Amino acid sequence: MMRVAVLYGGISAEREVSLASGIQVIAALGAAGFDVTPIEVGADLGALLAALTPPPDAVFNALHGRFGEDGAIQGVLDWLGIPYTHSGVRASALAMDKTAAKTLFAAAGLAVPHGRLVGREDLAAADPLPLPYVIKPAGEGSSVGVEIVRCGDNRRAEIARAWRYGPVALVEEYIPGRELTVGVMGETPLAVTEIIAEAGSFYDYDSKYAPGGSRHVVPAGVHPDTYAQALRMALAAHRALGCRGASRADFRYDDTGGEPGRLVLLEVNTQPGLTPTSLLPEQAAHCGIGFPALCAWMVEQATCRAG
Known about the structure:
This protein has helices at about 15-30, 45-50, 70-80, 90-95, 100-105, 120-125, 155-160, 205-210, 225-240, 280-285, 290-300, and strands at about 5-10, 35-40, 60, 115-120, 135, 145-150, 170-175, 180-185, 190-195, 215, 245-255, 260-270. By secondary structure, the protein is an alpha+beta fold. The model has no long low-confidence stretch (mean pLDDT about 90).
């Protein structure tokens, strides 16, 4: 029986998301017939190394955020020679660095939001872009720290003073319209989902993970040309970063002037959530792939990138 260690928890701002993902994965891999060793990851790297001794046949990486999907744990596992799920060091690091990822996407001919990095002092002093615009950390996921500054909003200086995600923030144009996402398994884009957040909110952390925080419409009711374009762009973004296993591409779709509208790639998540409200498992189920089968496929795709 194949021995699989599931890493979950971690020390990022997304620890609670990772814990929820890990609990689901542990149960699913057990149901799929694997010998599962849960490893709740904390700040003690030595303890993690001890837990991985003797090494398992593979690691299911259910960590999210810093040190979990930015190439850090991937480098440790490469060093140890242990195959692991999802993307390797390079793709993980590039995807987590939103500015670097946008550069690659633009070079691949994919539409991305206009924007730039802005220091906290400059952000406190003046609007860096015409209103409305989005302020986000350059290296976090799950919409952690994302703020939308709209016309008549006087929160900019307050946001700058309270900013705790490094010396700079990524500021981008706000794109009106709809929120779309596409999961990719290997070389296959799965489906297009429209995400509808609670009235009066955007798709923030609570909308993503709180029960009832959002509604998911799959397949999304968008123009057929837009649907096909979203599938193509998700796969192209997956390839541009060099992703492995599963990823998820997030888009804004501006159809305010009619359809087909403007489709803009926001980012690629190399460690898509696997919680009860997560999008990738929902899309896989739409394609006839149950959750245990999805997790088993991820383990079967696990490789050691060092070799």
